[in-house]
Fold this sequence. Notes:
Elements: H1 18-27, H2 39-51, E1 55-59, H3 62-71, E2 80-84, H4 90-97, E3 101-105, H5 115-121, E4 127-131, H6 140-150, E5 154-157, E6 165-166, E7 169-170, E8 177-181, E9 194-198, H7 201-212, H8 225-231, H9 244-253, H10 257-275, E10 281-282, E11 290-291, E12 296-301, H11 306-318, E13 324-325, H12 349-355, E14 358-362, H13 369-388
Parallel strand pairs: 2-3, 2-4, 4-5, 5-8
Antiparallel strand pairs: 1-9, 6-7, 6-11, 8-9, 10-12, 12-14, 13-14
Helix pairs in contact: 2-9, 3-4, 3-7, 7-8, 10-13, 11-13
Amino acid sequence: MVDIPNVKAAEPIPSQVMSEIIDLMNNGDLFRYNSEGSAAHKLEIEFSKVMGVSFSLAVSSCSAALFLALKSLNLPRNARVLLPAFTFAAVPSSVIHADFIPVLCECRDDYRIDLIDFKEKIKTVDAVLISHMRGHTSDMDIILSECKQADIPLIEDAAHSLGTTWNGKKIGTIGDIGCFSFQSYKMLNSGEGGIFITDNPELFAKAVIMSGAYEHNWIKHQGDQAKFKKWQNKLPLYNLRISNLSAVLINAQLPELNSRIEKGRRNHDFTAEHLNTSPWIFVPKKLTPEERAPDSIQFNLINLDTDEIDLFEKITSQSGLNVQIFGRTKDNARAFWNWQFLPETFELPKTRKMLMSACDVRLPSRLTLDECKAISDVILSAISTIKSGVAA
């Protein structure tokens, strides 16, 4: 019998990078602007190649990337930014930090944007920030079309979607700006870190300056030097730079990205197939244009009452498996009613109902299929125990 794996463990750092880390520690060259051709600069060049974009800016987190993306758009103070109600608290927080107002949009039981609510609310906003939450892609054809028709910018929060494509186009490259995360629970792990990508040289130059490229450090970035010079001393510095140590860790994992994407998709689809054998579990299917790169699985509990859901949480936990139910985990940062910092409140019954039965389990690419089977067996066994009345 296979033991339940520790799904909270992060993706491992390749051992071959250790000598480079030791060299970095010995010379102390951790600040990205100390020298030419730094690890941070290398990361930006290589990530641009991977994504097929003109510019990348490595920063301290995906939240920092989102903040810089918003600040680079030249929106007025108190501009309204539309985003999904199913996202992580850091996303509306980035909107607040940028001096804008988050406007929350309903999400369906498949975790994607409710397009009826989206089309109504886009009439009242100045920008759209789409979170591909937990790697679930909303209909980007419709979203992009609506943004173009309204003549407003589109930012993609692709923290969970590195490697996902929509109609063959990489998620994060569809909007004006894409933002990714290198936090430990993402596909590439540097503990903390993020990256901002775009094909727009003006937005990139502004983000570089604001990230903390003071004086003439912008010379050490790819991009239009005239545009950097244009914005020097005209924008505030927020000092959101990545360190060379974080960059070295990501550089070492970039060659493994495609393999991790394939294994993550394999693990997800294998587990989903098993879970969908239960009439009390619903794992949403991908949309036809979408090719996912998942590192977790989400499923809804169907026709279970409150007591049964409580019991499901208890049984799976006692079995050694961490199953998070977004709306029922105390102070969960993905439940919109916990975001008491919002300047406005929203009644979102569809999203609330979904979150009260939506379960989340990490499935890192390092897991074997036997380990994925062990995870699905725990979940199915818990449901079977509850519905057979044995647990009572």
